[in-house]
Structures are given as structure tokens and as C-alpha cells.
């Protein structure tokens, strides 16, 4: 396809917002699409691919272009996409004819360049994971497939597949994940289809978290950091729509989205509540099960959110680790005697995962790990996740 000026300019504008001003890539992209309603499907696909890959591979592309400017990085990415760069596009790096040789030379560069990661993150990843870090960051640079979780309160997996196919969306069942569908490559799911409440976009790694809670129909469950409610909805499905799920979060915006999704899914057992200073006292000793889907670095989701690696910093990570510890020490008080909880993150760093569980058990006697789930992006198509279920000894 020919590259049009307005689309090329849109790409650099979005990249400037994300890489220089710290905006969330998905939001910057959505905003640009809303303000340019005349852009067609092909236009939007070109812009989305350009900005996602430029953010994912910024340092590598800057090396290939021999220049760090956004214009040069875009030129290197368009060459990778097999596009002819227009004569009117100006950049300060090397000529296109020199880029193949520099592309070939990438393999000999430092990992921070060839895998395009900040220096601090590469050092932290190696310190935490040792030799495993190289494979993990390489896996996190692969494009993420689209997975769906079927709402079994509304339809079976095969019924969902048939319905999606009728809407022009081909999918396939995922072995080992009874509610999961993998969408055909590069296919997007429209908001209109998601509004039906028959399926939810949810990574298969994330789909392993709710089952670990070992819920049963009729139980009382608290999702203490519910966000927009993906795992709350999964818990309701696993409980057959019977029991109570209290979905809590400090963000009113996320809870508004949760309410919308709950209505679409036709679920009646989920109650939303914004966490405040009195929440702990109101619900102390209430729950049979507790999910602490803790705030985390999100590094396990870099395939979907490559901008995270440029927005994060060590200070933020350390602050997040302290918050995780606080939640672990406090939230289990919401459980009744004999209750169990799951601590989960979408991080690949042991300091946020196994390290937190070990520290919790050192500080809080009587708890034991009953089950643990470590989902690595290295040997699967899943994002990186960690979860552990803890119960009282005896």
C-alpha cells in the first residue's frame, strides 16, 4: 500500500505522545482513531501496526536507522513491513539502502539494543531471572495472539464458536483450557460483539487464575483488586451463577466498566463496591475465598503493552513491591476461618511473585502454599503470570 502523509504524520504524533510524554499506547491510538473517523479499516491497521512495532522495537529500529528520531524509526519499520518509503518522507538516519546491513548487524549488538529494552530493566531482569531472562524477554517481544474466554453462563464453547463464525470471526478451541478460544491471526473482535456478553477477551494465562481459587457454587468470594472485572466474571462462571462475588477496586472508572460487562454477561451474583477506609471493617471475616490480583509491574503483558517498558522505572517497581506486601499482610483478614486466598500478578519477576509469598509466610505464621501456577511466555502463547493459593495449616 502507498503511505499517505496524514497517516504517516499520525504515526509520529502517536509515538511522540507515548515515547516522549508517557501516554498509554492503547489510549493514544484509540483517541487518534476517534478524531479521524474517515480513516478506513486498512488505514487504521497500518497506523496500529506501525506504532505498536515502533514502540516494541524502538531501540533496535533506531540502530537499524542509525538515528533515534521518530521519523527515522518509522522509516526503518516501514522497510520491515515491505513498504516503499515515499520520497517526501524526511529522516535524519541512514539511507534505506544501508538498512539491510545494519539489520543483519543487530544480532551482534547488546541485548538492550537487539531486544529493545531499557538498560535498567535488562539489568533487573538478569539479576532476578539469571540465564532465563534472555529467553523471557525474547518471548515477550513476540506478537500476542487474541484469546477469548467463553461465558459458559450464556453459551457453550462450541455454541460460541458457531456464533462467532456466523459473525465472520474464525476461532479454535485451546487444548487444556476448557473455556478458551484462539482467534484467527490478526483478527480483531469488535466492541459490538463483545457487548453481547457471550465472550470476553482474556489471555489464557489469565484464565488459569480464577480456577486456582477452587471455588464452589454458593460460596462468598471477594475479588479485592477487581479492576474491570475479568476475573470476577470468570469466578461467577465457575460458580455456575450461584453464590456471591464482591468485586472491589479503588477506581470508580474501572468499576463502571465492570458494571457494564456484568450487565452484558447477564450475571446477577456480582456486586461492585469501591474500596474505601471502611471496607475492611465491613467485610472482615466474610469471605470463603479471596482473590488478591495485586497491582504489579505488568511485565508479563509486554507483548500486548510494549509501551510499559518505557513507562516503568525502578522507583515505580519498588513502590509496587511495597504495596503488594501491604495487601498481602492485610487482605487475608477478609476471610472466614478456614478460608483460602490466591495471590496473583501478571509479572515475570520473582520479587513480585515467589518472593512475596515467601516473605508473607515468614511474617504470618500458620499459612501454607496449597497450589502454585507459574505461566511463562517462553514455552506457551500465554502472557506471563504467577499465582499461589494459600490456606491455613491444620
Describe the SSE topology.
Elements: H1 5-20, H2 25-34, H3 41-56, H4 58-65, H5 70-80, H6 99-105, H7 111-114, H8 119-129, H9 132-140, E1 147-150, H10 157-166, E2 171-173, E3 180-183, H11 191-194, E4 199-201, H12 209-212, E5 220-223, H13 230-238, E6 244-249, H14 252-265, E7 270-274, H15 279-283, E8 287-293, H16 308-311, H17 314-330, E9 335-345, H18 354-363, E10 367-375, E11 385-392
Parallel strand pairs: 5-6, 5-8, 6-7, 8-9
Antiparallel strand pairs: 1-3, 1-4, 2-3, 9-11, 10-11
Helix pairs in contact: 1-2, 1-3, 3-5, 4-5, 4-6, 8-9, 17-18
The H-and-E topology, N to C, reads as: HHHHHHHHHEHEEHEHEHEHEHEHHEHEE
- Name the strands of the widest sheet in spatial order: 7-6-5-8-9-11-10
Number of strands: 11
Unreliable stretches = none
Radius of gyration: 22 Å
Distance between the termini: 66 Å
Helix content: 40-55%
Structural class per helix/strand content? Answer: alpha/beta
How many H/I helices?
A: 18
